[in-house]
Amino acid sequence: MADTLTIKRTSGSASAFIPMDALRSSGPEYSKLVDISRCIGCKGCEVACKEWNELQSEPTANFGSYQSHKDLTPNTWLLMRFNEIEVGENLQWLIKKDACLHCEEPGCLYACPAPGAIVQYTNGIVDFNQENCIGCQYCVTGCPFDIPRYSARTKTVSKCNMCIDRVEAGLEPACVKTCPTNAISWGSKRDMLAKADKAVETLKQRGFQHATVYDPSGVGGTHMMYVVPHGDRLADYSLPTDPTASPAPLTALNFLKRIGAYLFGFSLVGALGHLLAFGQESPDEHE
Amino acid sequence: MSEPLLHRFNLLERIVHWVVGVTYVALLLTGLAFAYPPLFWLTAPLGGGAMARVLHPYIGALFGVAMLLMLVLWIRDMFLNRQDVQWMAAVRYYATHQRDKVPPAGKYNAGQKLFFWVQGVLAVVFVATGVMLWFPEQLAPARTLLSSARLLHYTATLGGGLFLVLHVYLGTVAYPGTARSMIDGKVTRQWARLHHPRWHAEQTGLTDT
Ligand code: HEM
Questions:
Q1: Which of A65, A210, B67, B104 is an S-S bond match for A232, by CB 3.0 to 4.6 Å?
Q2: Residues 31 through 60 of chain B touching chain A, CB cutoff 8 Å
Q3: How many domains does chain B have?
Q4: pTM
Q5: Are A28 and A187 in contact (CB under 8 A)?
């Protein structure tokens, strides 16, 4: 079952800009599936994540929520968000497992200028290599889900790495392993999609007529998908309705950079050409 | 050649110009390294990517201060007038070394004045967007705002960088005798008569052909 990690693309390289179709691989492509309707809010996954990845625990305080911490941090890669929302007559927890979604078209990777700091593997995992990170935080801006977190102490950015060391050894990520209700499952992307469709079907029969699968196409699909019971209220789950891999200004920037490279080159050649054509203009010759 | 030299830039002006010049080139090279992965090695002289990312904004702050000083020192000679419009209209003769068809310039010709203003405006863009990119955690995850800041910061680099190539080419290779004005601050009378006839006349009291 062991599964070698084959790199699909890295930040700061030409592969960052190759369209997805050209890169689509035949290798095993994994996905997590989070069925929100099965989550009982135990936060076992948060603990498992901390434990496996040896992330420091962080003190927290009661801020009037069942949620453990207010936000993700460089040491908290997974946070169960408990949004208290009125659905019909009832107050409900719309729970969201907030962690990296491992986009097929990763906005963080596109935005990153440091070669090799962000790597996408053919199995779908998007991983940060802190030793190549320069701390510019462009990935934070590039991410449509607001996941990467910058540490002012280490001057690097961190996020969920899908327990890449476990996956490489043929194991499921720690949060999947620990979940007592099987709200989080793990498998090939195709199997997980089939499972999600079935879960949505069941939810619809139970009266959740807007139940849906969250696998947004704006980022080429994700390697952590959700089954969302109230699919018409994505914003209430803190799930962006229409996430994109590259915001318009970054797309414009990449286009301009290409033109700019030619212009810079042309300016140097142009100066040399001018010198050859017209020579120097020296005061002596005008006497 | 025994005629006395003319003083063009005093020591303060030269120091300020070179602080601007050195910081600008350092910023340009590290900036291009961040913009173009194949040029990432340009960060090596500053100690690699992470160190360059730390230093780039500090160098930028120094550049901003020096640029402000330059503005104060030179602004009074940089306002464009009607003669500058005529000079601009004849710029193709200037570029092709047909000086008899170029209206005589004062201390600075219209192109130099324009360069001063372009770099001045771009410096404001550089500093304003640069501060945002320096401390993005204060603004994150303002995706559109920070991406727009990157776009503007690069646009300023492109505009300023292209003008700089022209500036360095004209100041060093194209016109012998010019670079000296930024080294010991002096130029020959022949140089002044050729490039800045009206300034030459003011300095020497001689009107000249
Ligand atoms: C780094 C290489 C640079 C070189 C070799 C260089 C060279 C020169 C020289 C020789 C002059 C005197 C021109 C004259 O006597 O008329 C000059 C003037 C000037 N420099 Fe630079 N410079 C450099 C960088 C910069 C930068 C980065 C800026 C601003 C962003 C700048 C702004 C100016 C301005 C405004 C003037 C006065 C107007 C003009 O001559 O265009 N220089 N420079």
A1: A210
A2: 32, 34-37, 40, 49-50, 52-54
A3: 1
A4: 0.91
A5: no
